[in-house]
């Protein structure tokens, strides 16, 4: 194979390594918040479906929605 026949790599490895610590932290925290937020929303929906007290449902919504939104915002902020 001639060197000019090779296609360029799909991922620039040097660019991956240049990701700043701040962006890696944003991704990690954002991912944790999104996961926890959606888990809280799922438990809230399960509590609603099972007919548990409304306080448990509202607590799950009030906890889960902000976490999911903030986590998504942090992840989207990485691209800026």
Q: How is this fold's topology laid out?
A:
Elements: H1 13-17, H2 21-49, H3 54-77
Task: Kindly describe this structure.
- With 80 residues, this protein is mainly α.
- It contains three helices and no strands.
- Helix 2 packs antiparallel against helix 3.
- The longest helix is centred in the middle third of the chain and has 29 residues.
- It is elongated, with a radius of gyration of 20 Å.
- It starts with 12 loop residues before the first helix and ends with a helix.
**SS element count, helices:** 3
For the largest beta-sheet, the strand count, sense and barrel status come to: none
Query: In what range is the share of β-strand residues?
Result: under 5%
Report how far the terminal alpha carbons are from each other.
Answer: 40 Å
Give the overall pLDDT as a whole number.
83
Number of strands: 0
Overall 3D shape: elongated
Low-confidence stretches: none
Secondary structure category: mainly alpha
> Can you write the helix and strand succession as a string?
HHH
The helix fraction, in percent, is over 70%
Query: C-alpha Rg, in Å?
Result: 20 Å
């Amino acid at each position: 194979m001639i060197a000019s026949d090779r296609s360029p790599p799909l991922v620039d490895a040097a660019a991956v390594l240049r990701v700043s610590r701040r962006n890696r932290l944003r991704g990690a925290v954002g991912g944790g918040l999104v996961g926890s937020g959606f888990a809280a929303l799922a438990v809230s929906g399960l509590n609603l479906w099972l007919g548990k007290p409304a306080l448990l449902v509202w607590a799950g919504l009030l906890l889960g929605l902000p976490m999911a939104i903030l986590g998504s915002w942090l992840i989207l902020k990485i691209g800026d």
